Amino acid sequence: MPRAPTLSAQQNTARQLIADAARRFRSARLAFGHGTLNADDEAAWLTVHALGCPFEELAARLDLPVPPAALRRAQRLFERRITERIPAAYLTREAWLGEHRFYVDERVIVPRSYIAELLRDRLQPWLPSRYQPKTILDLCTGSGCLAIVAAHTFAQAQVDGGDISTAALAVARRNVREHHLAERVQLKQTDLFGKLAGLQYDLILTNPPYVGVSAMRALPAEFRHEPVLALAGGSDGLDLVRRILMEAPQHLNDGGWLVMEVGHYRPRVERAFPRLPFIWAETSGGDDCVLLIQKESLLSAALRARPSTAVTARRRRVTSP
Ligand SMILES: C[S@@+](CC[C@H](N)C(=O)[O-])C[C@H]1O[C@@H](n2cnc3c(N)ncnc32)[C@H](O)[C@@H]1O
């Protein structure tokens, strides 16, 4: 069995360590997408963690020798990243959405929702200017990341975060505490809107599980470390998306908005709900991932549950104006 390359004395700067690890990651054909998008950034992230310094200090330390203990820590992290295919976020126990840091472990999906980008811009230009929701629900909150980003963004708002998984909610509770938001962010265990009867919000954010069965089968090993419950969305991926579109109007105040991430399933969602006038926000992932829709639009469209097959939806599109 080939042995992992060891570092020579000349390779002991952070720059060389990162370059060597990135080469190994590429040749091992690792999959990225849990906070970084390529081997170099992933190697830098793990190296910074091993060094125990803030990321901003890396540039100044790139050509300094890496202390032996940090070198050993880095080697161990690289080894686990390669052999066990564990996403760096689970190895370092942290993930970032913009400037916000979150604790993560295998009880929650690694935060990467495009909705966080939209919140950074206060949902502009998609929602009315000076939009100020007072009550927000983050449905399927997982680590609590979107509830927390929303609370930071809209400092006057009360935020509820709901999730079916008590394990995920334990992580969310830790993050709410670490962000000092316990006064404004409440967490609830609920199957979608099941335990939210009678509650209405100005804004509902949700990044539900939306991976279809065939896409689940094709997921790289890294994604299999994440909870299936956080990913699997039924045969075509839209099981929860459908339920949320049907039930959201009862939980929105008049004029309220639903903002939902649906992967790259825009065509599928539009075929399933051809009468709903979705706004598709432009994100770094494209304009097919996050939809916005107002309560009144949800109510006025003839919202009927349809069979999920694309064939039925396509036929409908041809026959309806
Ligand atoms: C894709 S993750 C999103 C987590 C987090 N909002 C984020 O963006 O990183 C989906 C979450 O939905 C939760 N979930 C799955 N089925 C649910 C249901 N029926 N009701 C409520 N939450 C559910 C999972 O436990 C998981 O935490």
What does this structure look like?
With 321 residues, the chain is α/β, with parallel strands linked by helices. It has two domains: 9-92, Orthogonal Bundle (Helicase, Ruva Protein, domain 3); 108-319, Vaccinia Virus protein VP39 (Rossmann fold), CATH 3.40.50. The protein has a seven-stranded mixed β-sheet with strand order 5-4-3-6-7-9-8. It has a two-stranded antiparallel ribbon with strand order 1-2. The chain is globular and about 65 Å long. It has helices at residues 14-27, 39-51, 58-61, 68-83, 88-92, 115-120, 145-153, 166-178, 213-217, 228-231, 239-247, 266-272, 295-300, 310-319; strands at 94-97, 100-103, 135-139, 158-163, 185-189, 201-206, 252-261, 279-280, 290-294. The protein is built from 14 helices and nine strands. Helix content is 38%, strand content 15%. The longest helix is centred in the first third of the chain and has 16 residues, at 68-83. Bound molecules: S-adenosylmethionine.
